[in-house]
Amino acid sequence: TDAEVSTRKKTFAEVQTERLDQAERTVLIKCPSKLNEKKLLQYLSSHGNVKSHFFFENHGISALIEFSEKSSIASLQDAVGIPSASDHHVVPFKSRLFTFTLKNPVSQRVEETPLHLSPQCHIPVKDLIEKLCLADSISSQMYIVLNEFQLTEENIKLRFLACSLVRDFACAYFPDSMVKPFGSSVNTFGKLGSDVDMFLDFCDTGKHATKMKKGPFEMEYQLKRLPSERLATQRILSVIGDCLDNFGPGCSNVQKILNARCPLVKFSHQPTGFQCDLSASNSIAMRSSELLYIYGCLDSRVRALVFTVRCWARVHGLTNSAPGTWITNFSLTMMVMFFLQRRSPPIIPTLDQLKELADEKDKHIIGGYDCSFVSDLRKIKPTKNTETLDVLLCEFFEYFGNFDFRRNSINLRKGKEVNKPESSPLYIWNPFEQDLNISKNVNQPQLEKFVAMARESAWILQKEDKTQQMINKEPWGLAALLIPFGKSSSSKMKNRMKGLGSETIRSLLDSLKLNNANSQQKAVGK
């Protein structure tokens, strides 16, 4: 649709600013079970115009209400009472989370039309497979995966609201601070049900520097000085973590992990239903989010292929939500990007090409690393590549099934296979911090399992007879790849695994048998 195209062309920064502003004008209401939608909206409109709203299920029914004016929230807050402290004592923090109950429920007639609830999680894989079998091509199957798994408009609003509610606490200490989501919540590759990564940003330091030039005095704040930025970060996060723990309505399981490479606070935000990770300003992570945003906007095949490959990897136990020696979703996404840069003609540009298109305002040097690239999507020429997703999926498996991981690494800056700088089994250059490998955690057995699965999948796609399978009501195309490859195929796989180190084949086959049982549970549970 035209509306979608016009939203697609906004720069990353414009979208973020718009969403953060929207979240500031938003409240969350826990609703009574027998709710008349019209009456609720009628009442809320007495405080100001309601610009948008939706309902969702979260231990009962909740409503997200976006007002046109921020002042409407103050008006509503004036009308809301603090709950009486008869049963337990309360922390009298006036947030934007409210509970509405009916004063005399009997007299209020229940509305005949049931409320429309926006889903906040994706369908189980077994239901997905049934849907895929009804599609008419692998391309259509891949777009079904994308549509079922991608973040909805409503879910994105909820993510920004979670950040905005944390900001309300941060602002008590640091009135200029912002809390912004990064990573999968904003890079167009987020999946329903994924965590919200957010960071605390003290944005105004640059602006003040220019103002200080005026007048006869050098003026600056007297500030607490600490020996390192890391210590300052740890102190700030520690205090805000305590704040959320002690006073934050609906914030539970608060864990402070302050000695990590990137100190963070983990917590559950029950009102929105998200698991959240809060860290301090992380400009490079934000640049990575924007880079993926650009790639995701350039061509609709990019996101369809990423979502498909990630769903496939999940089903076969190649990825896992727990940290470990598995390939991460971020690494997998970067592998798809690299593959798309390697097509002929390329489907997406290399990072160096995006850097050449950058102008003055796109220049970003962060901690000595050059993170510059163009932000205006209109400056990037569309690709001339017309390959279908059917072809691309099969070629992806073929490419990485035969990739020389022993010698080569994956470099998105150059879009070329380059010699590995060190001996990690899988080496993917961090696009900005050029001395880091984003897949350093991956061990040899996991990589070999990935290669074996890719070969198996390429083989299944090449040999299949779609019409016959459809007549026999058998899963075909992508659906056939989302069923764990069982014991029956392990003998076939032995043939296709010639050339892999024999010592890892045994552990690989064992892990396949294990995974067969596990991945079905995992895939359905995630």
UniProtKB/TrEMBL annotation:
Residues 138-296 form the Poly(A) RNA polymerase mitochondrial-like central palm domain. GO terms for cellular component: mitochondrion. GO terms for molecular function: metal ion binding; poly(A) RNA polymerase activity. Residues 11-79 form the RL domain. GO terms for biological process: RNA 3'-end processing. Keywords: Magnesium, Metal-binding, Transferase. Residues 391-426 form the PAP-associated domain. Its cofactor is Mn(2+); Mg(2+). This is PAPD1 protein.
